[in-house]
Amino acid sequence: MEQPILTKKANDLWFQSLNATEKLTKKIDLINQRLIEDANVYIEWGFPDGITVQRITKLDSIRKVRTQGFCKPLYVVKYKTKQIAFRIENPLNDELTSSVSELITKNNICGVEIWTDDERQVLYETSANCGIIFITTDKRKVFKAFNNLKLTNFYMDEIGNY
How many CB atoms lie within 10 A of CB 109? Predict the structure, then answer.
């Protein structure tokens, strides 16, 4: 990626390139690159009275703000019938982002599925406005490692918070 993905159009183009990539290792590389790049996107919202705020979780859930301001995919890590859904948000804990990236390797991931159409809206509502990347692992210890990262703490937002 040459620059962070800030618009829905840029996000759609990125998803097209991810979909066009056939090799799993290349998909994993693209996902990790995106995770790191998205960690560098900090958004400031301005209000009519001139107050500027960095990072208000509830504002982020408003579709208008998301589609006009920036676009980050929802990630869902799957192991058998279990799943963890998260999105890289800000303020960011770089160490946590690196830990996620280190778990997404060709040795740990057996499949990547991408949803960018209407079915995502039914299951994940506004959390899926910018697409979903399903990352499947067949290793219990890898899923447990994702779970242990507590991706749904205040550094990252669980879809249930939206």
Answer: 21
